[in-house]
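not sure who needs this but someone in the group chat was asking about Fe2OG dioxygenase domain-containing protein from Gemmata palustris so here u go. i didnt clean anything up, its just raw.
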Amino acid sequence: MPRRTFDHIPGLFLDTDYFVPEQCSELVRQSLQLYERLEATVGRAEGPLEKAHIPQPAYVRSAEHNLKSAEHFARVALVEEKQRAIRCEYFPRYGEDGHALAYFQRNANLPDFVARDLVPGVHGMVAAEGFVGLDQELTWKLTMNFYKRVNGKVAGFPFHVDIPANGVVTMILNVQREVLFQIAKEEVVTDIPLPVGALLLLSGESRYVWKHRVLPTDAPAGGTANAIERVSLVLGFQ
Ligand SMILES: O=C(O)CCC(=O)C(=O)O
Ligand SMILES: [Fe+2]
């Protein structure tokens, strides 16, 4: 990984060129297909959505932009190739307008394209970086973020610390649109622009102590309201 590290943020690694553009477009295409299937399933479902309690450290809860303590979600089952059933938790609105999120826990629930096209390479990379062994069995978690156009902006993700269940190491795969990522501890705020194709790895102090967010960006001219303008994939392992 031709990576950049940050002297004052232990555990944070950035590779701005992890994916080539063709890989990014393919990952976006597959993710949007999955989004359509999630929406179609939730649209058909009867009854109210369940409420999830998402634990966050007190300093995140009290931040100006905070995650609400209870979000509504649906447990969704999808059928992949070879009739393989997978499950996820789907939040049509996660904290803020314009942000939908699907959470896939454990290897058996990963979508086909993630298990096939993404996980082997990422496992190789974290092994090469010395986080794990190449033959080590890892339990993977995937968060798929869908950000929509709202009032001329592409939605962002307010300050948070990834929940412990996301894994000891979490990685943001920025496959669609360049964004400004910020990572902060007390009054120290560091701006990290993420180009398309970037992989940002959070481990140790950067993952557990620092909080991070993605700022909303200006939406391109001419799009339709509520269209998905950015997808990000966040992989974690335990
Ligand atoms: O969309 C992004 O780039 C960040 C997502 C994120 O921080 C998360 O899913 O925990
Ligand atoms: Fe995060």
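also The pocket of fe (ii) ion (ligand 2) is lined by residues 160, 162, 212 (CB under 6 Å). if thats useful
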